[in-house]
Amino acid sequence: MKKTLTRGLMNLLPMALSIWLFWSLFISLDGLGQVLLNSLGVSYLFLGAGFILVSIIVFIVGLLFSVSPIVWLYSWLERQLMKFPLFKSVYGSIRDIASLMNTDGKPKSQKTVLVKQANGGYAVGFIMSDNTPKPLIDALPEGEWVPVLFQLSYQVAGVTTLVKREDLIDVDWSFEEAMRFNLTAGISSTKSSDNLNRNND
């Protein structure tokens, strides 16, 4: 009975949490849209009307940012606000995270690599960018150094380490699958293999 309950929980919990997160996001955006509708004198229409309004506004903003004067004006405003240290830190971090989701039709630059450890083992890491800041290059010994992210299991946080490119082993493994492997300490990969074996049987 314990195994049956555990099996049910392990299959139901990810689906339930995913639906709850997306539903919470939907409700939040719908509430924001309803506030905008109320400010325009429009009473409550139906569930989802606010979400549709927010989606339309985001789409229009996307169209506006294809116009050069709008892009120039926004860039000017961004530069002015970036003069404030606190705003620069918060806004810069959020912008960098958002840029990871916006490939703009370009192939993803993240690469999965193996890095040899002192004990002879290997750690799975990710090259997030090939551009190493010049101050770091000037401070490091001669060689081609690249920033490698080591993701911590069951945490959003990770450790960024500068490693010589010659010490990296490229792995033909997608960023998403390798990240899932690191985040779950290999459990997700093992589970996928077990499911594949059961299907083959």
From TrEMBL:
Transmembrane segments: 12-29, 41-74
UniProt cross-references to Pfam families, sorted A to Z: DUF502
Keyword set, alphabetical order: Membrane, Transmembrane, Transmembrane helix
Chain coiled-coil ranges: none
Identification of the protein by name: DUF502 domain-containing protein
Taxonomic classification: Bacteria, Pseudomonadati, Pseudomonadota, Gammaproteobacteria, Alteromonadales
Superkingdom field: Bacteria
